[in-house]
Design brief:
The chain has 435 residues and is mainly beta. The protein has a single domain, classed as Neuraminidase. The protein contains two helices and 33 strands. Strands 2, 28, 29, 30, 31 and 32 form a six-stranded antiparallel sheet that branches. It has a five-stranded antiparallel sheet with strand order 1-5-4-3-33, with no helix packed on it. It has a four-stranded antiparallel sheet with strand order 6-7-8-9, with no helix packed on it.
């Protein structure tokens, strides 16, 4: 039997005028939407590959006006399969279960194995979005927006050639360019990084294994023979230089930025033991909900292209995941990185963590309450590097409860806690839609 925190919910509901404690800032007028895997009734599936379900909370005028949850209705629900009998990839057949993006006046549910799916403000599925038929690869669930131009930078990886393709789209949704990036084999490339002048590729030793795919298992495994590399691509020339680094894997990048002579990349890095322990839990959470230390830490690489060197360091030994920053700092030096301690849903205390000015501070949640990703929303009325809020969904490890929580980004102290009308299973990434 699955632990409560990992058990899917069986239906879609809507609830209105939610109760809360604290004070919801009047400036927060919009909708928080979080994505995650939630298998339909009768569909056995591990959480990592389950059909996407969106959970939304609407805030306006200091109130929480509604909560609703909806499955993302992709062709998988009608029996489609990602790969057709002739071996071609059906780019519409995805779970859309990983993240949410507001782009080109559309809301998109993303997963890295297909094109995005457009959703409405009320979380209804409107259909696939393939950039007017121009997108011929899957799309990462972690695109990056250039803060100066508004262009969207993203990529698609696949199990069959071409293994990696880089894309740039205009703010109005037009696909501007697509470029093949040469890599030796299909690997799980979950994230990447963008700076003012560079794109950073993470070519890592988690490889596609067709034997696992044929058995219906998670089709990736760690390969001791595949080297870990960082690729630095000049955005002006598209030239890529590869740099070998210590063996490891990063699901999620915090940020990257250019210095005068070097490039800094910060991400949450796993060694092999930590990755394999976490991968096992993602594929099949333990029936007792046992504690598993993720062993993933905030890590920094500083790449000096002129010298051809990379300096690496662990910034903190606290096990964390889901690093977030102020989106306005994407690709530029950032003031703070926020994260949550791991595991996400152990029956013990969890923390919201902040890294700023070379120091770590934290807020301890009540016993049993563990947050997912906490995103940063800037405070427009008093704008500086740390003025804003952190928001996300916290689920209770052993009780049928969930909350939407808002914390002050400067102090990490709670601002408001909104009681949700149902348990919300563990999920992935969310977004704040200010409209």
């Amino acid at each position: 039997m699955k632990p409560l925190w990992s058990t899917p919910v069986a239906d879609e509901i809507s609830a209105y005028d939610l109760s809360f404690t604290g004070s919801i800032p009047d400036e927060l007028a919009g909708t928080y939407i979080r994505n995650g895997g939630n298998a339909l009734p009768g569909q056995p599936s591990h959480d990592f590959a389950a059909q996407g379900m969106l959970h939304g909370v609407r805030l306006a005028r200091g109130r929480a006006s509604w909560y609703r949850n909806r499955w993302v209705r992709t062709p998988l629900l009608d029996g489609a399969r990602p790969y057709r009998p002739d071996g071609t990839h059906d780019l519409m057949a995805g779970t859309a279960n990983t993240s949410v993006l507001a782009f080109a006046d559309k809301l998109l549910a993303l997963v890295e194995s297909s094109v995005p799916f457009e959703i409405s403000d009320e979380l209804a599925t409107l259909g696939p979005f393939d950039f007017a038929g121009q997108l011929a690869t899957p799309m990462t669930a972690h695109p990056k927006r250039d803060v100066a131009s508004g262009e969207l930078h993203f990529f698609g990886y696949d199990f069959r050639p071409p293994f990696l393709t880089y894309h740039v789209a205009a703010p109005d949704g037009r696909l501007l360019r697509s470029l093949l990036i040469e890599v030796p084999a299909p690997t799980m490339m979950h994230d990447f990084a963008l700076t003012e002048h560079h794109v950073i590729w993470l070519d890592q030793p988690v490889v596609f294994d067709p034997a696992l795919a044929k058995r219906g298992a998670m089709p990736f495994r760690w390969s001791a023979d595949y080297p870990t590399r960082l690729g630095v691509m000049d955005r002006a020339t598209s030239e890529v230089r590869w740099f070998g680094v210590s063996s490891g894997y990063a699901f999620h990048v915090a940020n990257a930025y250019d210095l005068e002579r070097s490039i800094v990349l910060e991400a949450v890095r796993y060694d092999r033991a930590a990755f394999e322990a976490t991968w096992e839990v993602l594929g099949a959470p333990p029936s007792g909900g046992e504690f598993h230390d993720s062993g993933a830490h905030l890590y920094r690489w500083e790449i000096d292209p002129g010298a051809g060197t990379v300096r690496e360091e662990t910034l903190d030994t606290t096990p964390i995941e889901f690093p977030t920053i102020d989106p306005a700092s994407t690709g530029r030096p950032h003031r703070a990185v926020y994260a949550v301690t791991m595991p996400r849903f152990a029956a013990r205390g969890a923390e919201l963590v902040k890294y700023a000015g070379g120091a770590r501070t934290s807020y301890a949640f009540e016993s049993g309450w563990v947050p997912g990703e906490m995103i940063f929303v800037a405070q427009r009325s008093h704008r500086d590097a740390e003025s804003g809020w952190l928001m996300g969904i916290a689920t209770h490890a052993t009780e049928d409860l969930a909350r939407f929580v808002i914390h002050d980004a400067r102090s990490l102290s709670p601002v408001a806690e909104i009681a949700l009308p149902r348990r919300v299973p563990a999920g992935f990434h969310g977004a704040w839609i200010a409209r």
